[in-house]
Automatic annotation (TrEMBL):
Pfam family, one: MotA_ExbB
Self-association state and partner proteins as the record states: The accessory proteins ExbB and ExbD seem to form a complex with TonB.
Family: Belongs to the exbB/tolQ family.
Keyword Oxidoreductase: no
Protein's cellular compartments: Cell inner membrane; Membrane
Protein name per Swiss-Prot or TrEMBL: Biopolymer transport protein ExbB
Membrane-topology descriptor: Multi-pass membrane protein
Source superkingdom: Bacteria
Originating species: Aromatoleum toluvorans
Amino acid sequence: MLTDTFGLSHLWAQSDLLIKLVAFTLVVMSVASWYLIVVRATRQLRVRRIDGAVEGFWHAASLEEGLARLSQDAPDSPFEALARQGAAAAEHLRRHTAAETLGGKLDADEFVTRALRKSIALSTAQLESGLTVLASIGSTAPFVGLFGTVWGIYHALIGISTSGVATLDKVAGPVGEALIMTAFGLFVAIPAVLAYNTFTRANRLELSELDAFAHDLHAWFTTGSRLASTPATGQAAKAGSGAARDIGLTSAGAA
């Protein structure tokens, strides 16, 4: 009988403007978080398909062919942007190395390093876009729902005291309706927190690979040859990332 009398429709009909505002806020948070989750998940699936793009770049016969392969296998990716930024810096240095300009006086190693570091910084900012929103939703949604619960229980108790009837059926229904707001807050927060942790880890792995690629590019543009890779892939990625930090390629955001 209580299920026919009380429920979501009854809660919405009996709620005041503040409760409706809390419910609307939770709906907006849920839509925003799921939109970011879908967008980021789609991007991660696309990143998995371009794992061999970097090796394809190094197996190319020339720089132009390597850049073309990256454009085909990893379009609009941080790896393509990094390679093109390094190539543009090397070309600029080749053309203006003898010119009496500030850029022409810079050491080749420093000039290429700055170009690669700038590309990594831009890619890091792009990778982290939306994560702040997910973190904010995951941390605040439960409290928004709890606020709605507290306010709903307050109004329920005021109604009970006004009627002068405090039987179980008069108390359980309104209080149970108010507790639904806490459940809504958790329903919004849990996916956002899980998605934030998942995407943060994925970004950390991608930035580690980007650091290793940047170190190889730096060696190739400054010495004309790529560093020999170690037998273990994990050791190579770790060594590349550490070396990239040693030469200052890792941006502050990536660190």
